[in-house]
Amino acid sequence: MCGGGGSPxxxxxxxxxxxxxxxxxxxxxxxxxxxxxxxxxxxxxxxPASSRNQFINMDADPAHPEFGRCIxxxxxxxxxxxxxxxxxxxxxxxYFNPGGSNGTGLPANLRASFDTEGGGALxxxxxxxxxxxxxxxxxxxxxxxxxxxxxxxxDNSSYSxxxxxxxxxxxxxxxxxxxxxxxxxxxxxxxxxxxxxxxxPQFRNFFVHLVRTGTDASPAHQRMIKDNDAxxxxxxxxxxxxxxxxFHLCMIDTICWDPAxxxxxxxxxxxxxxxxxxxxxxxxxxGHWFVRATYWSVNRNTGPVPxxxxxxxxxxxxxxxxxxxxxxxxxxxxxxxLSRPVRIRLSFTNWQEGSGLQSGRSTLVGIRWRERxxxxxxxxxxxxxxxxxxxxxxxxxxxxxQNLPIGTANPNYYVSPGGPHCNALANQxxxxxxxxxxxxxxxxxxxxxxxxSLSSLPIxxxxxx
Length: 465
What we know:
Blueprint: H1 11-14, E1 28-38, E2 44-48, E3 52-55, E4 71-79, E5 91-98, E6 113-114, E7 123-127, E8 137-140, E9 148-154, E10 163-180, H2 196-204, E11 208-212, E12 225-226, H3 230-235, E13 246-252, E14 255-268, E15 274-278, E16 290-296, E17 302-304, E18 310-315, E19 324-329, E20 342-354, E21 356-359, E22 362-366, H4 368-373, H5 378-396, E23 413-416, E24 419-422, H6 443-451
Parallel strand pairs: 3-10, 10-11, 10-13, 12-14, 13-22
Antiparallel strand pairs: 1-2, 1-4, 4-8, 5-7, 5-9, 6-8, 9-10, 14-20, 15-19, 16-17, 16-20, 18-19, 21-22, 23-24
């Protein structure tokens, strides 16, 4: 048993080397390592440290220690001998071991660090008070999805051994809301095309945990939603929480853009006065399709055909592959000889139909064209829709990025007419400009996705990490 005299040795100068004689109480030992959870008022509550996923893009929350990039620890020390003499001023040493598959070459602001975010400190120390508890140590994991770190506290100044404060894996959390438009005629909704069960694992591949939020609304059927109207339309049916870490997934009939006039000549008769435009080639908007029309009759009369002489309707169904736009022409008021064919030269506004669109936080996925194209292969309808359900939010996550997280340019980055995309071959990256058979990201886009903090969406492809 050790006496009460003598001064404690400094761990900073001697580590765990045993003192001479019987001064066993001059050595301290680590009793425990805990996580110190910061409360709203600035105080700390101790809780057992446990390995977990750390969602670095979430705001710190005392009820959720797994939120935020900062993880705080304390250690408690005591004399090996059991002496009740004060241990105030004794030092504990902290270090971490990175996982073997962690990202490499990251700039300082993305790397793990003690004390300050991006500060670069690989080690730190803390000092015990009279009760044996050290001051709080702050550890910041990297900003790179999938990186893992095991944190240690030790009484050894060589920063080895000690007690593990457990292992933490870098994740990000994103919220999404799903709303599915009603089908034409109220025959259900497009929810059967929203394969969220297969969407979630694609995001987990780059360490993003999706959380569904909001009420599943069923907005009324709207034949076309234009790109300029997409954000407003989606906003009117949105009620989910989670912003700014949020995207709104909408399964709709048709998304369209880039209207342009088309001029064609049709040969009509009294009994065959119908112009049929197949929906797999044309897209017309009811009430806003007409530009101009002119007729030529066999009696050489010619003149304009007023808008009022046309009746617009749609017929058929994409599930049978015969959906079409039908324009019926009335010859009333026209100086034509109806015993012979009449030529109608018609100019109309045709829209480009898109697979999907990311507009701010709104992700719109068009379904009608898929159900027409793969009417005999239902699985391909959902496979194609799933591709867009992953591809379009990728734009909100800052993909395909102009730069890689390590600070170099991304050679696969290019700007297509529809915005930034990945120039990897179509079967290698889901961020290719057109639908590819792949549901995964290429190596560069995977690195970009892992490097984003995702603390706020949307992120531009040229945005810094």
